[in-house]
Structure formats: structure tokens, C-alpha cells
Amino acid sequence: SADAISSPLADGTSFDPKPTLDATTLQNGQSAHLTISVPAGTASNASAVIFVTSSRSLTDFSIWPVVVTVP
User: Fold this and answer.
1) What is the Cα–Cα distance from 29 to 17, expressed in whole angstroms?
2) % of residues, the chain, pLDDT over 90
3) How far apart are CA 29 and CA 38, in angstroms?
4) Cα distance between the two ends of the chain
5) Which end of the chain is more exposed for a tag (fewer CB within 10 A), N or C?
6) How far apart are CA 8 and CA 5, in angstroms?
């Protein structure tokens, strides 16, 4: 899954990137595309943090943070 937290980084502003993955399950060697959106008019240096998660169970999981910053 991919969830976003819109919180500013280092005195910037935040935005909702509306993350989506094109797959709900993957096996070893497979891939998926993460798609985000930056709304028109989003301020320069605005940022969002997206957490991509993978889990087999409640105790066997991984979390990968992805930071998106508008140039």
C-alpha cells in the first residue's frame, strides 16, 4: 500500500500527492508503479512524505518512506 502524510519539511509547505500503486500484491521479482500528483500552483519547496508498505503479517512487515519535494 502507499499512504501519504502531508507535513512540511524544513520550513516548507505541504501538499497531498494522492499516491496510488498499480498493483495490490507482488511476488519476488515483480514490480509496480507508484503514481503521485502535484497540484497546479503548489509552492516551490513544498513536500510530502509517502510511506510504501509491505506486509506478510502483523509482525512481518517493511515500510519505505519516500519524500517528494517540488523544485
Assistant:
1) 27
2) 24
3) 29
4) 26
5) C
6) 9
**29-47: pLDDT as tens digits:** 999 999 999 999 998 888 8
* C-alpha span between 66 and 60 (Å, rounded): 20
Residue 20 Cα to chain centre, angstroms: 8
* C-alpha torsion sign, points 44, 48, 2, 61: positive
Q: Which residue has the cell 509482525?
A: 59
Cβ-Cβ contacts under 8 Å for 67 (sequence gap 6 or more): 9, 47, 48, 49, 50
Cell 502524510 locates to: 5
